[in-house]
């Protein structure tokens, strides 16, 4: 047999170590508990691991989606602005400074641009000193000094600069794109400044919003962060943005914050190149959380349901499993006890027969001698004490006779006899047996009933010995009742190969402490009765039944009655029978 | 009518002699032998008994073999087996059946049963002799 690994042995304690308490309930309870725990652990660990993995997979999926959204929105805005910048630079470089400070020319250009780009609010031409030399638009801004404005200071020729959203002189949120142009005629650079309505940017960014679940907006990245486009959460442009921007300027930075009602706020921030802006994509608490909490609830529900189901199944299985093991153990124990009992009977039988054999020869001599003395007494004439001697010898002969009965019955159990097989109808045999005992039963007021089963196969066995068995059993039943009662003989087919005969009485029953001894030799309960038993009847019956390949068992309840059940084979297995006889007889 | 000749064969000397004496008292002409060899020698010496009382289990040669020898020599001699252990005889196979004893009696036997059996055996032998068997 393969040896169990040590740790399993430690968990499921070794069967052999607990031999004494093999079938104690505590042992099975412990076994069941351990088995259940191990099975539950074996089930729960992978379940929890899988759950955790899917939890994190879901989360990282969400983050990746957010990052991708932020990246693509940033690219789109960059493209839009680059295109706008290119158009404005191209327009500026297509004219000279002198052409554009002419109000008519500028007005015409303004109107042309406005046709294509409705977001353009105004145009201005600023000289190298930062003074707006010409202006086209709805406000009066000609001659204003822009030298302190960043967009006019930092740009170099052939470049454009985008300014943050501001109110400026117009007191309307807008941003500027300034194109710096170098004039070859004057050798100085000038600036072509375009004001663009903040609402244009708003509208554009609003279009980028991929789903109503997210909030997307721009924030100025220099100085105090101010909103640069309308946010669903934080309000309209130029409202302060309540968070710090991340220091990382390349790529998308994702952060997680606790929002209202403890919902998680996921935030993706990406700096837009060439602008003073950062794009912020917020998946806010309850919007994002709805999805998330649904996922969490579903996961929790699945885990709970499968755990409960597994617990139920595991508990049921272990109950069944341990029950089966216990059943098998108990069966094995009772079989062991039966085998022990049988072999005990066989050895007692051998011993008894051996002793009987040894005693029988000297007994024969005593018997012969007393017989001879009796003979001689009869032949001789009268003498003193003749009568006395005669009666003493008679007493001796009687004692020898009693010994003879015992030795003969003992030897009868063990003798190696030739079983003469014939076909026997068990039902008929029972009727025959009953005919021997009818008188006796009637005399004692005992009813003997026959409940004979139908379609009982004809069996192959020894008629004389079967008669002896059932005479003995019915006789015992009658003795157990004493007076007025009922004996029932039942026959039935057990299966294809065996039949069962029950002898049931409603006598006084056999106490539990006695029942295990009733098949032993010299065991009798009939001592108080007129007909004293030798204590060999059931012992011999047992021997004969074994010899005929059968089996006898007894069930009894004190005060209710006793049932002897004899199971006989339909066909005797000769080789097995020979073996049994050999092992149970003393030999010789 | 001459006396019925009985041969008692048993290795228990006390038993054999006592039984022989009791049978003599009852009018049989009885001889006792204490081993099978002596018994067979006696039979071969033409002192043919009518009935042999033969112990089943004896040293050297057991009762069944002796029975066979006797029956081979003269099938009309009737043999009653005496046994100290179990009344049965291991009658196994046709060969054994061919030389079956007249009866088998368990020791200690009742003397009256025994004389009855001897007389019955003698009657059987007489019939066989009259038919001219065994001569």
Identify the notable features of this structure and list them briefly:
A: 588 residues, Beta-Lactamase, Heat Shock Protein 90, five-stranded antiparallel β-sheet, five-stranded mixed β-sheet, 13 helices, 51% helix, rod-shaped, disordered C terminus, B: 135 residues, alpha/beta, Rossmann fold, five-stranded parallel β-sheet
Task: Describe the overall structure.
The complex is a heterodimer of chains A (588) and B (135). Among the domains of chain A are: 61-283, Beta-Lactamase, CATH 3.30.450; 417-584, Heat Shock Protein 90. The radius of gyration of chain A is 58 Å and the shape is rod-shaped. Chain A is built from 13 helices and 16 strands. Chain A is α+β, with helices and mostly antiparallel strands and 588 residues long. The two termini of chain A are 43 Å apart. Residues 577-588 of chain A have low confidence and may be disordered. Chain A has helices at residues 6-11, 25-93, 97-101, 103-116, 150-153, 198-208, 285-379, 386-414, 426-444, 463-481, 512-515, 537-547, 574-584, and strands at 120-126, 132-136, 160-162, 174-182, 189-197, 214-220, 252-258, 264-271, 277-283, 422-424, 446-452, 459-461, 485-495, 498-505, 551-557, 561-569. Chain A has a five-stranded antiparallel beta sheet. Chain A has a five-stranded mixed beta sheet with strand order 11-13-14-16-15, with helices on one face. A four-stranded antiparallel beta sheet of chain A has the order 6-9-8-7. By secondary structure, chain B is α/β, with parallel strands linked by helices. Chain B has a single domain (5-131), classed as Response regulator (Rossmann fold), CATH 3.40.50.2300. In chain B, strands 2-1-3-4-5 form a five-stranded parallel beta sheet, with helices on both faces. In chain B, strand 3, helix 3 (63-73) and strand 4 form a beta-alpha-beta unit. In chain B, helix 2 (36-44) packs parallel to helix 3. The model of chain B is unreliable at 87-95 (pLDDT under 50). Chains A and B meet through helix 7 and helix 8 of A and helix 1 of B.
């Amino acid at each position: 047999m393969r040896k169990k690994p040590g740790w399993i042995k430690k968990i499921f304690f070794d069967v052999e170590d607990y031999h004494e308490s093999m079938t104690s309930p505590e042992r099975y309870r412990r076994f069941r508990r351990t088995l259940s725990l191990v099975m539950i652990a074996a089930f729960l660990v992978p379940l929890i691991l899988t759950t955790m993995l899917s939890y994190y997979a879901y989360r990282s999926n969400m983050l990746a989606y957010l990052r991708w959204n932020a990246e693509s929105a940033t690219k789109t805005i960059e493209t839009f602005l680059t295109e706008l910048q290119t158009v404005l630079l191209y327009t500026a470089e297509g004219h000279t400074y002198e052409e554009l400070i002419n109000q008519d020319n500028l007005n015409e250009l303004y109107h042309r641009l406005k046709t294509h780009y409705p977001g353009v609010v105004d145009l201005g031409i600023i000289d190298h000193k930062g003074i707006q030399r010409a202006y086209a638009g709805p406000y009066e801004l000609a001659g204003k000094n822009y030298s302190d404005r960043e967009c006019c200071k930092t740009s170099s020729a052939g470049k454009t600069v985008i300014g943050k959203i501001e109110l400026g002189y117009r007191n309307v949120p807008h941003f500027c794109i300034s194109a710096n142009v170098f004039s070859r005629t004057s050798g100085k650079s000038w600036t072509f400044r375009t004001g663009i309505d903040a609402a244009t940017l708003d509208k554009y960014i609003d279009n980028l919003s991929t789903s109503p679940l997210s909030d997307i907006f721009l924030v100025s990245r220099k100085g105090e962060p101010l909103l640069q486009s309308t946010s669903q959460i934080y309000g309209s442009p130029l409202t302060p943005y309540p968070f710090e921007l991340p220091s990382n300027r390349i790529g998308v930075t994702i952060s997680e914050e606790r929002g209202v009602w403890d919902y998680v706020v996921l935030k993706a921030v990406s700096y837009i190149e060439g602008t003073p802006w950062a794009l912020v994509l917020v998946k806010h608490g309850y919007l994002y959380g709805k999805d998330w909490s649904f996922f969490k609830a579903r996961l929790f529900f699945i885990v709970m349901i499968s755990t409960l189901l597994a617990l139920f199944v595991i508990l049921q299985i272990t109950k069944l499993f341990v029950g089966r093991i216990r059943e098998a153990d108990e069966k094995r124990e009772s079989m062991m006890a039966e085998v022990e009992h049988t072999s005990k009977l066989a050895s007692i039988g051998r011993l008894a027969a051996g002793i009987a054999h040894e005693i029988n020869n000297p007994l024969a001599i005593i018997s012969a001698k007393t017989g001879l003395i009796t003979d001689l007494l009869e032949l001789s004439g009268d003498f003193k004490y003749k009568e006395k001697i005669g009666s003493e010898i008679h007493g001796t002969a009687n004692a020898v006779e009693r010994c003879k009965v015992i030795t003969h019955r003992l030897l009868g159990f063990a003798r190696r006899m030739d079983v003469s097989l014939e076909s026997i109808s068990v039902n008929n045999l029972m009727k025959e047996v009953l005919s021997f005992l009818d008188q006796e039963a009637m005399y004692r007021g005992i009813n003997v009933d026959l409940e004979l089963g139908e379609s009982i196969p004809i069996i192959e066995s020894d008629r004389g010995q079967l008669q002896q068995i059932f005479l003995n059993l019915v006789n015992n039943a009658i003795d157990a009742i004493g007076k007025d009662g009922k004996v029932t003989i039942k026959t039935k087919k057990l299966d294809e190969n065996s039949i069962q005969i029950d002898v049931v009485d409603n006598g006084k029953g056999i106490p539990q402490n006695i029942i295990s001894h009733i098949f032993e030799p010299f065991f009798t309960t009939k001592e108080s009765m007129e007909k004293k038993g030798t204590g060999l009847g059931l012992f011999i019956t047992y021997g004969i039944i074994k010899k005929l390949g059968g089996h006898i068992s007894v069930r009894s309840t004190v005060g209710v009655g006793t049932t002897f059940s004899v199971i006989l084979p339909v066909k005797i297995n000769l080789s097995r029978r020979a073996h049994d006889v050999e092992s149970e007889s003393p030999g010789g | 009518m001459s006396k019925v000749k009985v041969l008692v064969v048993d290795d228990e000397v006390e038993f054999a002699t006592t039984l022989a004496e009791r049978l003599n008292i009852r009018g049989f002409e009885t001889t006792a032998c204490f081993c099978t060899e002596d018994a067979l020698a006696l039979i071969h010496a033409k002192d043919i008994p009518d009935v042999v009382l033969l112990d089943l289990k004896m040293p050297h040669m057991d009762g069944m073999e002796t029975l066979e020898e006797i029956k081979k020599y003269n099938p009309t001699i009737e043999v009653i087996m005496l046994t100290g252990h179990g009344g049965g005889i291991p009658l196994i196979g046709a060969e054994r059946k061919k030389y079956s004893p007249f009866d088998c009696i368990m020791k200690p036997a009742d003397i009256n049963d025994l004389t009855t059996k001897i007389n019955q055996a003698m009657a059987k032998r007489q019939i066989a002799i009259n038919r001219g068997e065994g001569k």
